[in-house]
Amino acid sequence: MIQGLQFRKKSFLGNEEWRTKPWQNTKKDIHDRLLELGFEFGALLEEVDNSGLKEGKLDAPTCVSFPQRYAALDVRMDVWFQDLLTETPSPLFWLSSEADGQAPDSVRSNRFNFLNLRLAGIVLTYWGLKLVLSNVLAIICGALLFHHPALQSDAPETIAYPHGRQILLQFLDYHNKAYCIELATKIMRSMSYVLNDNMGLLGAQHSLFPLRVA
Question: In the predicted model, is pLDDT for residue 106 greater than 50?
């Protein structure tokens, strides 16, 4: 999944066959469902790259449809997170002020603790996916508003697409810098937990993707 996002390519693991046949006799767990969303994200990145969007070959409604699909995927990630909260004892994570001689005071008072390492890794993957998606969505919206003639504020009436412009502005208003910083901060507050010596190599492995995107 991480490679698919890094190289903006779909994976065969995101194909319908791989998403259905292995699960005919067993139920997908909450982590499997999150990975499916990640594979779908990588496939969407590739589709957008190959669509001609960057070359300005598409009409305004088609251009706006791509940010809408990213936003729809973002909503599905939030629905997934609500399912995680429903299936998991509460609270899933919490702020801890326990003493940690190896951490500065600011980290000690603001770090997250989790129910267990597995759930920490799942939540960190979710936050990492959300952060990447928000950045991608904001970049596309900003580029379309700046470059596409039908989506600019002074577009002639004959070509203007004001509804599409309003949609993009709403996306930018939500997926702003403060929102991305909030996600990155959650990731950083989790590092003292997953990188604790007691977590071993598995803890470090859980940190790689979210720490890189934060």
Answer: no
Whether 48 shows a pLDDT value over 60: the answer reads: yes
User: Which residue do the tokens 């859980």 mark?
Assistant: 206
118 closest CA partner among 146, 153, 93: 93
Residues 6+ apart with CB under 8 A from 144: 63, 64, 67, 151, 168
Question: How, if at all, do strands 93-96 and 111-114 pair?
Answer: antiparallel
Q: Cβ contacts of residue 151 below 8 Å, gap of 6+?
A: 60, 63, 64, 144, 145, 161, 164, 165, 168
pLDDT over 70 at 139, yes or no: yes
- How far apart CA 141 and CA 134 sit, in angstroms, is 11
**SS3 string of 185-209?**
HHHHHHHHHHCCHHHHHHHHHHHHH
Mean pLDDT of the 156-181 span:
92
Asked if residues 11 and 1 have their Cβ atoms less than 8 Å apart, the reply is: yes
- The C-alpha atoms of residue 208 and residue 212 are separated, in whole angstroms, by 6
